[in-house]
DNA sequence: TTTTGGTTGTTAATTTTTTCACGTTGTGCA
DNA sequence: TGCACAACGTGAAAAAATTAACAACCAAAA
């Protein structure tokens, strides 16, 4: 019988990813151990919260020496990463898509953007940031050949819903969506919409909020 | 005496921004009324949650007719927006910065990117996406002249901390940070770090998680 | 007019998340 | 060795967020 995995909250996953980024950073600087309160600073949280998060990955910290950086990286990886490198596709090679492609492709060890897609014939067939850009017609085939199950969606908002449907039909299991719209798709596909306008509006709001708190 | 504003959670602010985006969308389509359960779908939430969020803006829905789209847009705006258009600066006009500049500048009614900055002399003095790109040396002056209190930070990660310090010195009150690093600055500056790698790792993680839930 | 059906505003209950608190443990030093 | 210190792991408490529940209300149909 498969052991029942307790489900881990989205918030914890976010923080684990950030811990790992920081851990790799300090590892490169030669640090081999880290305390919970150091990790706490990176996520603007508390040491207790960090310890609790790390319990999820099966903690093995050591009193008064803290956590071992290297094994923590491995353990977080065991939880977050797939056994093999995850192949990701980028759909929509416009201004944002190109930036994202350049930023990610070939840079990460746990995932990689292996193919790009666009409906504009001028962009298809070319190599962009070291990755081939295919026409949308080839999507299904390339997805299957490369076992792609995650896509980054960066097409115009009017096209997003339609393209998402295509992706689902091609067997995608998760979409990181940059188009500012809610995508309604099959239930078991995980959609994460990253709405930059919302993020900026929030930032602006809290810039004033902070001010009010100071004054009030 | 100023009335004590109850503080509103970050989550609620996020959703209000998304409700508004959707409201404007359906307003353009000619809809004049909306129900809480329609808004709920857009944020993948429940109707109760929507009604609760809307209480924060002073709700004035009507039984069995729902909410009036137009007045809801205005009321959310009263809460989220400043009295005048908020002037925002973009710092770091690279691949991502250019995409962001093109996406936002001149497109929004409640805020606008009015100036860009870069340390690369080749980019300074030019007009990029309709906005002037200044040298970093002019930052303080341009910030004061344009009453800029919010900045989007899109410089390389190694530069982020240093540039953030410059921004704080220039009087910025909030930073939307795209560099994947924790910025430690003065306490009363609101920092919101948007870590795309984390967002993608989360997406990949939950793509597998969904699968497990199905199987388990 | 009265009933029916569906929605809002709001309080109460529940669930989730965070924080606290403290016993335990490893380290370093006298 | 023994003591002081600081950090960990974790159950319990607290806080925050979400969901449920329901009276009041409105519109439309009977
Ligand atoms: N640029 C930004 O900084 C930014 C910020 C926030 C959100 N977004 C969102 O991200 C998305 C992309 O933004 P952008 O600035 O890169 O836009 P863009 O217009 O520069 O790029 C869109 C790309 O999608 C391609 N495309 C159009 N229809 C397609 C289809 N049906 N199938 C496949 N490809 C198609 C186009 O050929 C183009 O290359 C938009 O939804 C936008 O709202 C962008
Ligand atoms: N491109 C992406 O899609 C993407 C995704 C996630 C995160 N990021 C992050 O966003 C940031 C920008 O990414 P990018 O791809 O646009 O990088 P980029 O190298 O294309 O652009 C960086 C820009 O910053 C400028 N710059 C460098 N030092 C500066 C300084 N001290 N002051 C002012 N300007 C300076 C450079 O001249 C350049 O124009 C990076 O921190 C990156 O990690 C980018």
Structure at a glance:
The first copy, chain A, is of the alpha/beta class and 216 residues long.
**Strand arrangement, largest sheet of chain A?**
5-6-4-3-7-8-9
Mean pLDDT of chain A: 93
> How many separate domains of chain A?
2
Q: Helix count of chain A, per DSSP?
A: 8
CATH class of the largest domain in chain A: Alpha Beta
The ligands bound in this entry are:
nicotinamide-adenine-dinucleotide
Q: Quick one: how many beta strands of chain A? A: 9
Q: Which structural class should the secondary elements of chain A be placed in?
A: alpha/beta
Biggest sheet statistics of chain A:
7 strands, mixed
Coarse shape of chain A? globular
Could you walk me through the main structural features you see in this protein, from its secondary elements to its overall organization?
The structure is a homodimer of 216-residue chains. Chain A folds into two domains: 71 residues, Winged helix-like DNA-binding domain superfamily/Winged helix DNA-binding domain (Arc Repressor Mutant, subunit A); 112 residues, NAD(P)-binding Rossmann-like Domain (Rossmann fold). In chain A, the strands form two sheets. In chain A, strands 5-6-4-3-7-8-9 form a seven-stranded mixed beta sheet, sandwiched between helices. In chain A, strands 1-2 form a two-stranded antiparallel sheet. The relative contact order of chain A is 0.09. In chain A, strand 3, helix 5 and strand 4 form a beta-alpha-beta unit. In chain A, helix 1 packs antiparallel against helix 4. Chain A is 45% helix and 17% strand. Chain A is globular. The model of chain A has no long low-confidence stretch (mean pLDDT 93). The first copy, chain A, is α/β, with parallel strands linked by helices. The longest helix of chain A is centred in the C-terminal third of the chain and has 20 residues. The structure holds nicotinamide-adenine-dinucleotide (NAD) (2 copies). One nicotinamide-adenine-dinucleotide sits at the interface of chains B and A. The structure holds a DNA duplex (30 and 30 nucleotides).
């Amino acid at each position: 019988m498969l052991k029942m995995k307790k489900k881990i909250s989205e918030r914890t996953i976010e923080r684990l990813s950030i811990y790992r980024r920081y851990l790799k950073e300090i590892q490169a600087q030669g640090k081999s151990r880290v305390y919970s309160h150091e990790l706490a600073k990176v996520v603007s949280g508390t040491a207790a919260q960090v310890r609790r998060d790390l319990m999820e990955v099966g903690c093995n910290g050591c009193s008064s020496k803290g956590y071992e950086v290297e094994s923590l990286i491995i353990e977080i990886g065991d939880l977050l990463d797939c056994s093999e490198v995850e192949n990701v596709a980028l759909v929509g090679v416009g201004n944002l898509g190109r930036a994202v492609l350049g930023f990610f492709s070939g840079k990460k060890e746990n995932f990689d953007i292996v193919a790009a897609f666009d409906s504009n014939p001028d962009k298809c067939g070319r190599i962009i940031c070291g990755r081939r850009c295919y026409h949308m017609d080839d999507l299904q085939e390339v997805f299957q050949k490369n076992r792609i199950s995650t896509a980054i969606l960066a097409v115009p908002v009017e096209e997003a819903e339609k393209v998402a449907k295509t992706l689902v039909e091609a067997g995608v299991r998760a979409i990181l969506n940059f188009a500012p719209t809610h995508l309604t798709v099959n239930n078991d596909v995980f959609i994460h919409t990253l709405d930059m306008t919302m993020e900026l509006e929030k930032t602006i709001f809290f810039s004033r909020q902070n001010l009010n708190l100071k004054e009030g």
